[in-house]
Design goal:
The protein contains five helices and five strands; from the N terminus they run H-H-H-E-E-E-E-H-E-H. By secondary structure, the protein is of the alpha+beta class. Bound molecules: zinc ion and manganese (II) ion. Manganese (II) ion binds next to loops.
């Protein structure tokens, strides 16, 4: 296959990954994305999905969510927002809440360096898991 054709295929796969992430608000892992994408791209490999995800994170087109779980999760929504992780089912939800940028200056109050950002993840029980618990 000529190199040009290969590149076009690659960017088609990349577009499909971006599109998948923009239309699925579930913050999927690479494995989940791979399993769903390969329905339309049967020749795609898990390695290709991983490579494209890394590239897209580098390009700032998607965000990576790593909070210490075994697998990294990905987000097609790159607007600033915070996440809630359910301790029971592991699902990740977007939180609608006020901006927390003030914590940078709070953290810098008694610190001699320069704080340029933070990572905050909220956790607990999601609505579904909470209602199961109450049954
Ligand atoms: Zn849950
Ligand atoms: Mn999100």
């Amino acid at each position: 296959m000529p190199a040009v054709t290969r590149n076009i295929n690659r960017s088609k796969q990349r577009d499909a990954i971006v599109n998948y992430l923009k239309t699925h608000k579930t913050h999927p892992t690479a494995d989940t994305i791979y399993n769903d994408i390969k329905i339309d791209f049967p020749n795609i490999s898990l390695g290709t999905v991983y490579r494209n995800l890394s590239l897209l994170v580098e390009l700032g087109e998607i965000k990576k969510i790593s909070y210490g779980a075994v697998s990294e999760h990905f987000d097609g929504d790159i607007s600033p927002h915070n996440h809630f992780i359910c301790n029971e089912c592991g699902k990740i939800f977007d939180l609608k809440m006020d901006n927390l940028d003030f914590v940078d200056s709070l953290a810098g109050n008694n610190f001699d360096g320069r704080i340029t950002g933070h990572n905050i993840y909220f956790y607990g029980l999601c609505k579904d898991c909470l209602s199961k618990e109450e049954d």
